[in-house]
Every structure is written in C-alpha cells, then in structure tokens.
Amino acid sequence: MLSIVLFLTKIIAYQFTHSLAILTDALESIVNVLAGFIGLYSLFIAAKPRDFDHPYGHGKAEFVSAAIEGGLIVAAGVMIIYETVLNFLQENPIQKLDTGLVLIGITAVVNFIAGTLCLKIGTKNTSLALQASGKHLQIDTYSTLAIIAGLVIMLFTKLYWLDKVIALAMSGLIIYNGYKIIRSSLAGIMDEADTKLLKQFITALNENRRENWIDLHNLRVIKYGSLLHIDCHLTVPWYLNIHEAHLEIDELTNLIKKQFGDYIELFVHTDGCLPFSCTICTKTDCTVRQQPMKARLEWTLENIISNQKHRL
Predict the structure, then answer these.
(1) What are the structural domains, with CATH classification, of the chain?
(2) For 143-169, how does the pLDDT look when each residue is reduced to its tens digit (9 = 90+)?
(3) pTM of the prediction?
C-alpha cells in the first residue's frame, strides 16, 4: 500500500513538472509495488514448515523472490533509458519544479524510513527477501535525492538539459544495483559459500575448542532462508564409545547455537583419530598416544573446508 501511494505521488509530481528525471523515479516505484507483493508472498512460502517434498523447508523461496526483484529493477533501468531516448526526439517543457521538489522530497523521506525498517527486521531474521526490499527502498531514496539535487540546480540555472543527463545516470545506477541483487540471490540458490559466515564460524570453533575435538574438516554452511544447515566431519579419539562421541557433538551443537542462534541444523559425522593425528592432538591424558604433539593446528577457511583429515 505504501509503495502504491509513493508511486502515485511521483506520477502527480511528473504531471506538474514534465521532468523526465521525476518520471524515471516514478517508473522505478512501479518495481517497488510489484516487488512488495512478490516479497510478501515469498515470506509466506518461506515460513511454511518442512514437508515430505521439501525436507529442508521452503526458505529458498526468498532467493527466488530476490532474483525476481533484481530482474524487475534492471527492467526499470532499461525502461528509463528507453524513455530518455524518446524524450530526446520529443521535447517536453519543464515547469513547476518547486511543486515537484516538495512532492518527491516527501517520498524520499518515507522511502528511507521504510527501507531502514525492512533492513533492520530482515537482518534480525536473516530474511533475504526483506533485506532486498530494504536495500531497494534505500537505493530508491538515494536516487530520489540525486534527482532532487539536479532539479534544484535546474530551478536556479535553467539548464534543463540536465534533466536527461540525470535520468541516464540514474538508470545506470538502478541497473547496477539490480544486478547486485540478482547476483546475491543466485549465489544463495547455487549454495555459494558465504566466506564471512564461515570465518565467524571458524573463529568461534578455535576460541572454544575442546580437547576431544582433535580435528574438524569438510565444513559446509548452506542457507535456507533463516535456517542455517551446517555439515562437518569431527575427528575425536578413536576409543570413545558412541555415547561419548555423541556428547562431543552435543557440545559442538550447543556452542554453534549459542553463537549463531537457534535457527541451526547441524549434521556432524564423527571420525576416529589416526596415528598421524597425534602430532596435532592437544589431549593431555591420552594413554594410547603414538607420537608427541608438535603443534596445535589452527582451523582456517582454507584447511577446514577440505574433505580430508589434517596432518603436519
């Protein structure tokens, strides 16, 4: 509803001024209206519990929503370029810039507030759809402010050709930001590694490592909406029984949930240590050690994602 009101306000501002820059801002707002409905529907789908057909839940719907929104943003940028080229051929006189400035100034303030709220809520709930909508609203605000600056210059200098320059510049910015949203959503759909998240995860493990966690490798973190699905292999002393090994997994799970919240699904495969593991094992009361410990192996992004036990 808010997007519709803002769109209509910008159309009214265009009718007053005949400014192509304001028209481009209005065309972008059409995307806000469509993206709002798509994002709302994707949140509804993503919130559904896992079922037989979707054992990992429906969180990927948010990535699809963000990809569609990014595509719409790019389409809006292309449309703006098209309208600008047409305006070169059919000149429309600009008028009543002061009225237009007031109207789109109001939309800029409202957009920024709405975008900030969406980003805050989306970050808190790790919702890509809300974050994409929030970023889009803030981008819309920045582009509107640039247009306002250009209109102010035109108002005082009467250099009305700047209207077309501003429109083309805004279209380039819009297309670029649409591409970034598409790139981010496709990364989620393709399960691209989130290096920032992995580094946070690895830091927490290194700072809270237990003696029985001899090694950890084959680490993978996959996002399903707000759910984090984590796979890894944990090397423990070979002589632990099933119950003792499971207690180590429980400790690892509790650590991760304490650091990153309850929206965690952790799958841990346990391996028994091998003789070469002794050189990196920090366990002090091991009665079957075959080699002395040489150095504690710090887990890093490079060595923890490999699918093999570590050795010096």
Answers:
(1) 2-189 (1.20.1510.10), 195-304 (3.30.70.1350)
(2) 778 778 877 888 788 777 777 788 788
(3) 0.62
